[in-house]
TrEMBL record:
Family: Belongs to the CobB/CobQ family. CobQ subfamily.
Protein source organism: Streptomyces aurantiacus JA 4570
Name of the protein in its database record: Cobyric acid synthase
Residues annotated as domain CobQ/CobB/MinD/ParA nucleotide binding: 6-238
Gene: cobQ
Ranges for domain CobB/CobQ-like glutamine amidotransferase: 262-432
Amino acid sequence: MSGGLLIAGTTSDAGKSVVTAGICRWLSRKGVSVAPFKAQNMSLNSFVTREGAEIGRAQAMQAQAARVEPSALMNPVLLKPGSDRSSQVVLMGKPVGEMSARGYHGGRQQALLDTVVGCLEQLRGTYDAVICEGAGSPAEINLRRTDIVNMGIARAARFPVVVVGDIDRGGVFASFFGTVALLSPADQELVAGFLVNKFRGDVSLLEPGLDMLRDLTGRRTFGVLPFRHGLGIDEEDGLRVSLRGAVRESVVAAPVGEDVLRVAVCAVPLMSNFTDVDALAAEPGVVVRFVDRAEELVDADLVVVPGTRGTVRALEWLRERGLADALARRAAEGRPVLGICGGFQVLGERIEDDVESRAGTVDGLGLLPVRVRFHKDKTLARPVGSALGEHVEGYEIHHGVADVLGGEPFLDGCRVGAVWGTHWHGSLESDAFRRRFLTEVARAAGRRFVPAPDTGFAALREEQLDLLGDLIEEHADTDALLRLIETGAPSGLPFIAPGAPS
């Protein structure tokens, strides 16, 4: 086998990421050498590869689904929003500058297209199949001229396209038809068909609509994937706990001890890598919720201040909402607080930022003896160390460099009383360390909570990825998908003119 496929969507969050991961896991189980690819990703949830490149977390999880090591080739362009109008551009895993949306789409697209096509060709030369994920919708006609992630890359690689639609939102048939109808004839040639996602109920009731859709478009539906609670991979931009989770509060397995442990995560602006708390949500008896009001911290046993792309902005937000005062009261009372990356920085004494916010010197919350200076160069690393007597692995993504002036060492940060701070994302995925940390939190919070002795976070991730592979294998026409990957889109697919469904 040698080929590929582009998974597009009718909208953002239609299910492109999970379908791509599911196809990667299904092909990997068949013995096919497969790699994921997303030419351009916009996300504040990122990951550091072993070679020190920053890519979207979704692509890192898709690589895990494919059972291959993640690489910058799999996500050559990453956009990290800093405001509604500008983003940091990360090219081949390294930041190259801040750019407005108008500036980004204004003149660099041919060079970027050449880069992403080159990356895709390298992957095609290494793997039997490459499963590409689009972004948003391919029918965003205002952006088609500068598109490098949807039909732009499909046209360049001559990859067939399957469009995913979320039927749980409603309007999926109109979305499928409208997506195809808004494309040019050359783009429509590559759209092979559709995949329905998140269907609840009896599939036979859907079949008449699928038959009509085929009559209207000349394109088939490759499967109907059922709705599954708590099934997903690391989010790109949704505020959701990925494992055993829901939007605001995680679903909790029965605790091992007498008490549950309540974790409140401050939903700071430009929150990044909030997937750090997934490992907490995976623990039986741990309740994780995202909060934005001071009163929501009152009953929390642990408050997490997560990473953020806007450290100074997050600091202002915490003060405006009274959360800063609530955190100070917790620290004075010896009640647990954990700051991670940007959240660690705001807990310190002072921030000097002439890079990210250009705000100059700003007072932090003063809960940790730390002073932070922002550097133009970004730290991208995969550190290994120990804390609380246990082995810990993590990854670092930050411009701020911390000068720790006191306290008890804690990873690369420090601890004072029940307040901890570190730059290490992913540290809570180290099972033994997480259990020791939660034991310390429970003791400080006065809870009779006992961490489960056998919760393995990596095993839970593998279980999720296997479930995604099962979803594809059991509910999609895998023979037809294999033919698409091997031979491309069928010839003779009809052109659908906008507004003319016949």
